[in-house]
Design goal:
Blueprint (H helix, E strand, L loop, with lengths): L1 H26 L12 H22 L11 H25 L26 H17 L2 H29 L1 H9 L5
């Protein structure tokens, strides 16, 4: 029962915060949907693949066997730990960005956030996503999910590079200085 709660609650709450927060921002005339920094079909395929991987991990937690290999003991606990760490980073990053949060590159002027987790990583939310993907793969030991997770990581790294180029153009020297102080991921 604990596995079910650990797998279900963080993912469900994050999606509520993500989409509910988007609705709240729209009421204040802030568009959370930025411009895709890479081709839109690839961008959307990657974003929706994250949700598919999360759904697979949650389904495994509820007893749907997605692999012929049973995941138990230390591997299952490690996966649950990575899952919780990943969602903790996602929540902290989302709330740390506040009104500056965008899915994609901001269409309007934004300001550089360098406090909280952003003092240690320029992309703590991507680190969180990667952690949840690794957790989903370890928790299910499904080779198809491994391939989907690899696709997401490769595409999201391209997204990060494109977003950084955008931010260099928008924020200039402040962003360049920030990049000199803080690593891209960890």
């Amino acid at each position: 029962m604990l596995d079910r709660l650990v797998m279900t609650l963080p993912a469900a709450l994050f999606l509520v915060v993500l989409f509910g927060g988007g609705a709240l921002l729209r009421r204040r005339h802030i568009d959370m949907d930025g411009t895709p920094p890479i081709g839109k079909p690839l961008y959307l395929a990657s974003k929706y693949s994250i949700i598919v991987l999360w759904a697979a991990a949650v389904s495994q937690g509820w007893g749907l066997r997605l692999s012929p290999v049973a995941v138990r003991g230390p591997l299952a606990r490690a996966a649950l730990g990575l899952w919780l760490v990943g969602f903790s980073l996602l929540f902290a990053g989302r709330f740390g960005l506040a009104d500056s949060f965008r899915i994609g590159s901001a269409k309007e002027a934004t300001r550089l956030r360098v406090n909280g987790l952003f003092r240690f990583s320029r992309n703590p939310m991507y680190v969180g996503v990667y952690s949840t993907l690794l957790a989903a793969v370890l928790y299910t030991l499904n080779p198809v999910l491994l391939l989907v997770a690899a696709f997401v990581v490769v595409v999201h790294h391209r997204i990060v590079l494109a977003e950084e180029q955008h931010l260099r153009g928008v924020l200039g020297k402040d962003y360049a200085d920030y990049c000199g102080r803080v690593r891209r991921y960890l």
